[in-house]
């Protein structure tokens, strides 16, 4: 038996035992197995593995389908994209306003926080500066925290 | 290699399009069609049935949230199995070492496997083969499982396990060789 032929057959065995081969290909594999004990042994192993492949618990598909149909959690709702954009836009506004108020000698400093005095910087708990490009990489949870802090800042913070 | 499969009444790609448009029946159809494969991959990596169920659910929900980003470069199934493999690895990092206990017991046979007589005849050797499969290193285990259970090509396996097509082929044949040695 040629090794090349065995190699082709062994590569096809999973499809053979799984009934995924075209009938003509399956017949060729079957014929080869009749002549080659080595490939026949491997076919037996593949068949054993395939026959005992585990199935998901009966209720799992229903559970997943129900979860998929349920209203999406807040953290994953599409309005998050809008919220994130709003945060960025407001933060950008703060940066621009701060820049306008800055002393002229600071105006050529690059970055949206240029010229902002230390006390004017709005820094989140995790040390990120509002409006910085890193805002894009924030997780949903971090964005939620930023949003809540901004709410606090514009209402309670003004008092 | 020519594949011959019963054509599905509705291809995955059509279900994905309908799911994107918000059709709940399409989501359910995708879940029903792929839950077994997703669960098997989760179980192969996590080694714990309860955890594998949670991972399966998380993976489906993540996939559905990301449907807009699914470009169709790979099949939906390969894309989904890649997601579940990543979810399972993440869960394993959070929950600690892979558990072997669930793999030591005889796994439930797929409902479409065999009739009662054949199941009784096969169950002993099949369970032994599956148990041996669980002892293979992860990439060999997944390569064998994805090839045998799910019929993925080596190129698709490479996408799921994060390797080259050649490495997936080598992992598969090394895994099979070791299983044959252990089963002798």
Short description:
With 159 residues, chain A is an all-alpha fold. Chain A has helices at residues 3-17, 23-35, 37-51, 60-69, 79-100, 140-154.
Estimate what percentage of residues of chain B fall within beta strands.
under 5%
- Helix content class of chain A: 55-70%
| Helix-residue proportion of chain B | over 70%
Backbone CA Rg of chain B: 17 Å
Overall pLDDT score of chain A = 66
Net shape of chain A: elongated
Biggest sheet descriptor of chain A: none
**If you average the pLDDT of chain B, what whole number results?**
87
Find the biggest chain interface: A-B, 37 and 54 residues
Number of strands of chain B: 0
Name the helix and strand elements of chain A from N-terminus to C-terminus, one letter apiece: HHHHHH
Can you describe what's shown?
The complex is a heterodimer of chains A (159) and B (184). Chain A has 159 residues and is an all-alpha fold. Chain A is 57% helix and 0% strand. Chain A has 6 helices and no strands. In chain A, helix 1 crosses helix 2, helix 1 runs parallel beside helix 3 and helix 2 (23-35) crosses helix 3. The longest helix of chain A has 22 residues, at 79-100. With 184 residues, chain B is mostly helical. Chain B has 9 helices and no strands. Chain B has helices at residues 12-20, 24-46, 49-65, 76-95, 101-104, 116-134, 138-148, 154-161, 165-183. At the A-B interface, helix 1, helix 2, helix 3 and helix 4 of A face helix 2, helix 3, helix 6, helix 7 and helix 9 of B.
Secondary structure layout plus pairing:
The complex is a heterodimer of chains A (159) and B (184).
Chain A: H1 3-17, H2 23-35, H3 37-51, H4 60-69, H5 79-100, H6 140-154
Chain B: H1 12-20, H2 24-46, H3 49-65, H4 76-95, H5 101-104, H6 116-134, H7 138-148, H8 154-161, H9 165-183
Helix pairs in contact in B: 1-2, 2-3, 2-4, 2-7, 3-4, 4-8, 6-9, 7-8, 7-9, 8-9
